[in-house]
C-alpha cells in the first residue's frame, strides 16, 4: 500500500485525524473523512501556516519563512465559492529556482465532499521550488496544475491534467481560476 492509498477509516482513526486538524478553518467533520481516507498512514500533523486572505495580506516570503526546510507538507486551500483544493509535497520546500523530482506528490480536489485525486505522471516536473520572492507550484511553470499565488491569492489557478492526471479519464484537463480565501499548510509524517 502506498502512503496515500484509499482504505476505509475506523472511528478511532477518524477521532485521531479530527484532533490533528482541529484548528482547520477549511476542513470540517463532513470533509475530513473524505481526505484522510486517502491518507491512512498519516501519523502526525502540525500547522505551519494558516491565513485568511480576505483579512490578511501575505507574500511568498511568508510562505518560505514558515514552510521551507520543514519536511513533507500537505497544503489545503479553500476558494471563494467553497471549493477545496490541496496538494501533498513529500520533500521540503526550499527557496531555489528548480524542480524537485518525485513520484509521491499528488493534488486533490474536494467538491461537494467528493474527493478526486490527481497522481503525478511527469515526476521530473512534480514540484516547482521557487526563489524566496516567488510562490512555489505543483507542475510546470506557466501551466501549473496547481498554483497558489501568495502575493495575489485571487490570481491563483488550477490547470489539472498537465503533469498531474486522474487515473480515470487522464486526458481531461480542468482549468479554473481560483479566488483563494483560506490557505493552510501542515507538516506531515507517515508511518
Kindly provide the radius of gyration, computed on alpha-carbon positions and rounded to a whole number of angstroms: 15 Å
**Tally of structural domains:** 1
**What proportion of the residues is helical, as a percent range?**
10-25%
**What is the mean pLDDT?**
85
**Poorly predicted ranges:** none
Major beta sheet, strand line-up: 1-13-2-3-5-6-11
Quantity of strands, as a count: 13
Sum up the structure in keywords.
12% helix; 191 residues; mainly beta; 3 helices; six-stranded antiparallel sheet; globular; TLDc domain-containing protein; seven-stranded antiparallel sheet
Write up this protein.
- This protein has helices at residues 11-20, 32-36, 60-67, and strands at residues 42-52, 73-79, 84-89, 98-100, 106-111, 114-120, 127-129, 137-138, 146-147, 156-160, 164-165, 174-178, 180-190.
- It is mainly β and 191 residues long.
- The protein has one domain (45-190).
- The strands form 2 sheets. A 7-stranded antiparallel β-sheet has the order 1-13-2-3-5-6-11. It has a 6-stranded antiparallel β-sheet with strand order 4-7-8-9-10-12, with no helix packed on it.
- β2 and β3 (84-89) form a beta hairpin.
- It is globular and about 40 Å long.
- The model has no long low-confidence stretch (mean pLDDT 85).
